[in-house]
Design brief:
376 residues; alpha/beta; TIM Barrel; 8-stranded parallel barrel; two-stranded antiparallel sheet; 11 strands; globular
């Protein structure tokens, strides 16, 4: 099974300089590569101490040159915050330069601070995401970008340098709301599961996605197996790792609640964000401490044996193709993150690598005679 490393660039409370956050995380990322992780992932966030990772493509271009043997994943590029022509050009540049190593994760985002900062209305974010995604995904295959919809009128222009590899089967969307599943299936994209709810509910929604896929594409074409992210702490001592998990995974979820305004009801009454409004209702009903504890218990932390068992359960339950955990978050000291990462790398990673799982497709070379039969 494929195992990726998701970088953490959090600076909660601005306790460190941003430069120190990067120095620590780059060192930890280099360690993950040395330990044998298959891919490197990063998120996209802006304007706050939640995550200092405003440009996934630029970061992965640096890491792709630094580590030529690993694949590169965006988890995710938030399309409504980008000008789609420039976004497509940047994706192609990274994929061409890396030899087709990019695993492209897309999303629509839910941070009010970020939408306001980019002067983009949240109210139409889902429709904007679909319009941009359709334009960009078509352009990645044909080399031509064009659109005529309520969000963008783009006369045909050619991507140069031309895309060298097809993205078929290696584009995923991070989604947690049930009503997004049919949209993702219609677009023909895979799911990047970011845990926010009990796993049996995730499995039920995955079933709805597969049903929508079969209705849209027929039963002869299987959907891509999903990818899964999450926070993880590993320690040889069961009591110590439990304390670490509740301290740091709990601290991470507190930053989630703060950044997205879940406690303040930032998504109440906002069309397309009904699921996220329900998180506010849950926090109001159960309390922040209970919500944080519930999140901690979703994650596969523990001793190496416990972690293997929990990841195996996830794999059996969801049929995932890859697990891409984060080890550095919530103000965790870098030495704690490195110790956890190294124990995972030596005791857990070799076992998980032995498991059978659906592959993440490689970027297949596009024959120019097929891809560029017409010009703008």
């Amino acid at each position: 099974m494929h195992v990726g490393y998701t970088g953490g660039f959090q600076n909660p409370g601005n306790r460190l300089t941003d430069a120190q956050v990067y120095e620590d995380e780059l060192r930890i990322t280099d360690t993950a590569v040395e330990l044998g992780f298959d891919s490197l992932w990063t998120v996209e966030h802006h304007f706050t101490d939640y995550f200092l990772s405003p440009d996934p493509v630029q970061y992965l271009t640096w890491m792709g040159a630094r580590h030529p043997g690993v694949r590169l994943g965006t988890g995710v590029v938030v399309l409504p915050w980008h000008e789609p022509v420039r976004c497509a050009e940047q994706i192609v540049m990274l994929d061409n330069l890396s030899g087709g190593r990019l695993i492209l994760g897309l999303g629509r985002g839910l941070g009010r601070t970020e939408y306001d900062g980019f002067r983009v209305p949240m109210e139409n974010s889902r429709d904007r995401f679909v319009a941009y995604a359709e334009m960009i995904l078509r352009g990645l295959e044909t080399g031509i970008l064009e659109a005529d919809n309520e969000f963008i009128v783009q006369p045909p222009v050619e991507i140069r340098p031309r895309p060298q590899h097809s993205f078929a089967g290696r584009v995923y969307v991070a989604a947690m709301s049930p009503d997004a599943m049919p949209l993702i299936a219609r677009l023909g994209l895979g799911l990047l599961i970011v845990p926010q709810k009990p796993w049996h509910i995730v499995a039920a929604e995955l079933g709805a996605y597969r049903d929508a896929w079969a209705e849209e594409h027929g039963t002869g074409r299987e959907p891509p197996a999903p990818l899964c992210a999450g926070n993880i702490v590993v320690d040889a001592d069961a009591a110590r790792v439990e304390e670490l998990a509740y301290r740091y995974i709990g601290a991470y979820y507190h930053t989630v609640i703060e950044h997205y305004g879940f406690a303040e009801g930032a998504h109440k009454g906002l069309s397309g964000y009904e699921f996220y409004a329900s998180i506010t209702n849950y926090i109001d009903k159960r309390g922040t401490d209970t919500a944080v504890a519930d999140y901690v218990n979703l994650m596969p932390w523990g001793t190496p044996e416990q972690v293997i068992e929990k990841i195996q359960r996830l794999t059996d339950f969801l049929g995932i193709a890859a697990f891409n955990p984060s080890f550095n978050f919530g103000g965790m000291p870098p030495d704690v993150a490195e110790t956890s990462l190294r124990l995972f790398g030596t005791e857990v990673l070799p076992e998980v690598h032995r498991w059978d799982a659906p592959p993440i497709p490689e970027g297949m070379v596009i024959p120019e005679s097929t891809a560029y039969a017409r010009t703008p």
